[in-house]
Design brief:
Layout: E1 4-9, E2 13-18, E3 23-27, H1 41-45, E4 48-50, E5 55-57
Antiparallel strand pairs: 1-2, 2-3, 4-5
Length: 58
């Protein structure tokens, strides 16, 4: 099973990079990341990997 290598956030998007070389981009105005749209930079930086590095929690 592939795991998450890193997560990057910009002012408009979140990018989740997977160990198999793929990545998942998502606009902060789209589901499931819409809750991050109004978050402060400090809140956006407060993430951790969960479920054996297969999920991101904020």
């Amino acid at each position: 099973m592939a795991s998450i290598n890193r997560v990057e956030l910009t002012t408009t998007s979140i990018y989740v990079f997977i160990s198999d070389g793929s990545f998942w981009p998502c606009l902060l105005t789209a589901q499931p990341a819409v809750f991050l749209y109004h978050a402060t930079p400090a809140q956006r930086a407060n993430w951790q990997l969960a479920e054996r590095d297969t999920a991101v929690e904020y």
